[in-house]
Amino acid sequence: MKLLWIGKAADGSDGGDEIYDRKLIAALPAGISVDRVGINRASVASQLGAISRGVPHPRFRFSSPDSIEEIRNQSARYDVAVISLEALESYADGLQCPALLILHNIHSDGLGQIYSRSSFAAFLARWSRRWEKKIYGRKNLAIGVLSERDRTLLLGIAPAANVVVVPPGSPPPASLAPNAHIVMEALISGSYSWAPKRRDVQRLARELSSSASNIRFLADRPLPRVAASALQAEGYDSSSSDGNVRFGLIPDTFISGFKLKATYYIANNFICLTRCDIASEFDGIPDAKRFVRYVPRGEDAAAIMEEYRAWGAEDLRARFGAFKEAVTDRFTWRRSAGVLADVAEQLKRGAAG
């Protein structure tokens, strides 16, 4: 089977969408070939033209008539097109093969969460929702989402949509030391170049700096200046792990999509403390509520960490080890790639029949 994979052109940030595409493609079963096309931001003139045609934010940013026509012509040589990113939805128009559209976020939902106090964001969310209702129920289109929460949301938008869940896989699990115990250190992982993420990590840092004086903070990439100054975070290298259990912080206050940090933390022996409620993704896994904790107020994080220090080390090792194994078994790139391959095969057969 031949897939045309349409994604955003790499910009050097190695963000979540780039990581997702790279790892999912690498895990696809034998017999599937993939040609990738990277879409750059359209010219200002093309963006203005897209807005005039009713293409909403952020889709208009990548909506170039020339690029869309070029992809449309290329698609005739492929069995299925995979469009990986909701900002590229315009490229689903007129394809000469069926398509799987992978939504990293449901944009109308995310806007309301990320900019909850903005009337302009509310306008953009309504505009986006009208577009989503028009696009997502198309018969020649399957929709992939990254989380169970987004699946529920999408079926509320387009009840007839063909929806599958293709979550990111977790990294290979790090070893848990035979004598593993709690270490009062907290890691903030990831990149914060995007303004809403930068806003949230700086807000969390201010809250933590006044309440967590006994916690040593770590960061695996440079933090924004305000956060770095407030926390005095030290560098962290996952290859130097000693097998003990620490804490991983998710500063985001919005849920949209799937939080890659969550499975990264768990696989690397971090109890996950998150400012957004992602518990539903771990439903059915024993002790999920113990090791994925919803902590909306940063001021409460230090007291919650202290709770774990009082826990018996032997019981902690047994429970956390079993939880980590269940998480890394549920979230694998190979399983998600298998779901994608099955959907692509169904789309191919449907087009042939």
Overview of this protein structure:
This is Glycosyltransferase family 1 protein. Helices cover 41% and strands 17% of the residues. It folds into 2 domains: 2-169 and 332-352, 3-Layer(aba) Sandwich (Rossmann fold), CATH 3.40.50; 182-330, 3-Layer(aba) Sandwich (Rossmann fold). The protein is globular, with a radius of gyration of 21 Å. It is built from 13 helices and 12 strands. The protein has a 6-stranded parallel β-sheet. Strands 9-8-7-10-11-12 form a 6-stranded parallel β-sheet. With 353 residues, the chain is of the alpha/beta class. The protein has helices at 16-26, 44-52, 65-74, 107-114, 119-135, 148-157, 195-209, 225-231, 260-267, 288-291, 301-309, 313-330, 333-352, and strands at 2-8, 33-39, 80-84, 99-103, 141-145, 162-165, 182-188, 216-219, 234-235, 245-250, 270-274, 292-294. The two termini are 16 Å apart. α4 (107-114) packs antiparallel against α5 and α7 packs parallel to α8.
CATH topology of the largest domain: Rossmann fold
CATH class of the largest domain: Alpha Beta
Strand fraction: 15-25%
Q: Into which percent range does the helicity of residues fall?
A: 40-55%
The H-and-E topology, N to C, reads as EHEHHEEHHEHEEHEHEEHEHEHHH
CATH architecture of the largest domain: 3-Layer(aba) Sandwich
Number of strands: 12
The number of helical segments is: 13
Strand line-up across the major sheet: 2-1-3-4-5-6
Low-confidence stretches: none
What class would the helix/strand composition place it in? Answer: alpha/beta
Shape: globular
Organism: Caulobacter vibrioides (strain NA1000 / CB15N)
Protein name: Glycosyltransferase family 1 protein
